[in-house]
């Protein structure tokens, strides 16, 4: 019985669909600087940096010359609605930051593999020492994680 245990384990792994290897089917990707269709400039650079760092943290080569895929993104809209203002001062006490983006993946032949849009937002409160900058960074982190999950293998 003990001699058969490794064989049984091997058969069990094969039958359940277990696969050894990388979670990401894409091994290298070129990330273009995001376009920005909103009136608020320079956010595209910070968002691109966040996406590049998140992808690289997953072990995917970023911006290699021979990359088989290109990731392109666009910031479609940026909103910062003020939820609570302090009386008589116009100082924002509670607010949020909202980004709407579109991302697409293109292979080396120029074929679009997928295109998706997403809206992410984060709230901030000046009473907690937060600012629109901390909320913006939270949104960028969420969007970068979302983009990276789109590069995973399909189950």
Structure, briefly:
Helix content is 29%, strand content 34%. The protein has 155 residues and is an alpha/beta fold.
Q: What's the structural blueprint in terms of helices and strands?
A:
Elements: H1 5-15, E1 28-31, E2 35-36, H2 43-57, E3 61-62, E4 69-79, E5 82-85, E6 92-107, E7 112-125, H3 132-150
Parallel strand pairs: 1-3, 1-4, 2-4
Antiparallel strand pairs: 4-6, 5-6, 6-7
Helix pairs in contact: 2-3
How does this model look, in words?
The protein is extended and about 80 Å long. It starts with a helix and ends in a 5-residue tail after the last helix. Helix 2 (43-57) crosses helix 3. It has three helices and seven strands; from the N terminus they run H-E-E-H-E-E-E-E-E-H. It has a single domain, classed as Double Stranded RNA Binding Domain (2-Layer Sandwich), CATH 3.30.160. Helices cover 29% and strands 34% of the residues. A hairpin with a 6-residue loop joins strand 5 and strand 6. It has helices at 5-15, 43-57, 132-150, and strands spanning 28-31, 35-36, 61-62, 69-79, 82-85, 92-107, 112-125. It is of the alpha/beta class and 155 residues long. Strands 1, 2, 3, 4, 5, 6 and 7 form a seven-stranded mixed beta sheet that branches.
């Amino acid at each position: 019985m003990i001699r058969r245990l490794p064989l049984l384990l091997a058969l069990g792994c094969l039958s359940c669909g277990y696969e050894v290897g990388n979670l990401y089917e894409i091994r290298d990707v070129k990330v273009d600087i995001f376009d920005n269709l909103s009136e608020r400039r320079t956010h595209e650079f910070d968002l691109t940096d966040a996406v590049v760092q998140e992808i690289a943290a997953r072990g995917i080569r970023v911006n290699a010359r021979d990359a088989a895929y290109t990731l392109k993104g666009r910031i479609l809209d940026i909103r910062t609605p003020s939820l609570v203002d302090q009386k008589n001062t116009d100082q924002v006490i509670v607010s949020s930051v909202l980004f709407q983006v579109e991302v697409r993946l293109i292979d080396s032949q120029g074929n679009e593999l997928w295109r998706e849009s997403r809206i992410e937002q984060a709230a901030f409160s000046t009473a907690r020492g937060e600012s629109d900058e901390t909320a913006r960074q939270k949104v960028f982190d969420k969007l970068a994680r979302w983009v990276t999950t789109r590069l995973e293998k399909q189950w």
